[in-house]
Amino acid sequence: MNDSNDNNAGINMPRRGFIGGVGLTAMAAALPSMAATERTNDSSSTVKTPAPGLRRLGGLEVSEVGLGCMGGSGYYYPFPGKARMISVIRDAVERGVTFFDTAETYGPFTNEEVVGEALQPMRQKVVIATKFGFSYNGTERTGLDSRPANIRRAVEGSLRRLRTDYIDLLYQHRVDPKVPIEDVAGTVKDLIAEGKVKHFGMSEPGPRTLRRAHAVQPVAAVQNEYSLLERSPEKNEILAICEELGIGFVPWGPVARGFLIGRFGEGTVFAKEDNRAGVPFFFPDAMKQNLAVYDLAHRWAQRKGVTPGQLSLAWLLAQKPWIVPIPGTTDPWHLAENLGAVNARFTPDELLQFRRELEAIRIVGERAAPGTLAMSDVEAPEKK
Ligand SMILES: NC(=O)c1ccc[n+]([C@@H]2O[C@H](COP(=O)([O-])OP(=O)(O)OC[C@H]3O[C@@H](n4cnc5c(N)ncnc54)[C@H](OP(=O)(O)O)[C@@H]3O)[C@@H](O)[C@H]2O)c1
Description:
By secondary structure, the chain is an alpha/beta fold. It has helices at 82-94, 110-119, 148-161, 181-193, 207-216, 232-235, 238-245, 284-304, 308-319, 332-339, 348-359, 370-373, and strands spanning 54-57, 60-63, 67-68, 99-101, 127-132, 134-137, 140-144, 167-172, 197-203, 219-225, 248-252. The chain has a 7-stranded parallel β-sheet, with helices on one face. A two-stranded antiparallel sheet has the order 1-2. β9, α5 and β10 (219-225) form a beta-alpha-beta unit. Residues 82-352 form the NADP-dependent oxidoreductase domain. One of its GO terms (cellular component) is cytoplasm.
C-alpha cells in the first residue's frame, strides 16, 4: 500500500511546465499560486485564501477540501519535521479547513501524535478521521488484522495519540480477507454506542463488502484513490454505490501524489525509499505517456486562470457534491494553493468536453505494485 512504507527521502526533480510554462503572475488574484519562484520571505499567512464551503459525508459535515496529514510522517520527499507539520495543520484550521486525515499506520503511530498535538487546542472545531486495520510487532507492521479485539486496541491507541475522547470518522484501512465485514461493522457500531467513535468509514473496499457493511452500520464515507490519473472508482461501482446509499466519498491522492501539480517530468528519478519510486504510473516509459494527463490539466488551467493542481482538485469537486478531496501537503504555500481550488468552476459543457479529452488519453501502468493493489477492492468472507 502506498501509504505504508518507510519514511526515507526521495529525490524531487523540477516541475514540468509548471514554473516555466504557466504564467503564474497572469493568474487570477483570487486563486493564489504558490510556485517556489514566487515566494518571498513573507509568511504564507499573508496570502488570503477563499474560505472553503461545507459538504456532507453521510451524516458528517466537513469543509469541502480537507487536509491529508500523512506526509507529516514521511512518505514523500522532502520530509517536513513535526514542528512544520503542526504549523501547516493549524494554518489550515485558520483558513477554514475542518477535516483532517490520518491513520494508525502512518509512521506508524507518529502521525496521529502530530495531528493530536496540532489540533488539541481547537478539537471541538474540527473533524478528525483515522484508520485501523493492521497488526504490529512494536513499530513493525505484521499484516492485516480487523478482528474486533484489534480494532479496539487500535482505537484506544488512536484516542490517546490524538489527545481526544472521540474519533469523528473511523475507517477500516483495508478489508481483512479473513474477517467477515459484519464483525468489523458490528464492532464499530458498538464503539459508536460507547461514544468513542462518531462515524464509520471504509477505504478501498470491494463493492459487495461496502453494501454489507452499510447494512450493519451506515458508512459515512469511502476513501479511495481518485484523481485525473486514477479513475478506478468510476469503473468498479464504488462511486455508484456511494450515490445510491448516500455515502460520501473522499479521494486520496487527489493531485496524484504531486504528478498533477507538475512536480515530475520525463527525467524524474525517485530515490528507492520515496513511496513514488514503486508506483508503475511513474516508471519512465509510463511517465512519458502519462504526462499527457498533466498537459491536459495544464492547458485547461491556463485557460481558466488557475494552476494545474487547482484545476485537478476543482474537477474532483465538480464530479459530485458529496466528494471531499484531502490533498496532502506539508507546505503552507501549497496548502494555500490547494484551497484556491474552491474558486475554480467548470460549466456542465466544460465538464463534458474535459472528460472527452481526458478519456482520449491512454494511461499506462498502475497506481501501485501488484502486492499493494491486491489489498484493494477486496471482498470480506461471508459470516457463517
Ligand atoms: N486510504 C488510503 O489508503 C490512503 C493512501 C494514501 C494517502 N491517504 C491519505 O490521503 C492524503 C492525500 O494523499 P497523498 O498525500 O498520498 O497524495 P496527494 O495529496 O495527491 O499528493 C501529495 C503530494 O503532492 C504534493 N503537493 C500537494 N499539493 C501541492 C501543491 N499545491 N504544490 C506542490 N506540491 C503539492 C505534496 O508535497 P508537499 O508536502 O511538498 O506539498 C505531496 O508530495 C494523505 O495525506 C493521507 O492522509 C490515504
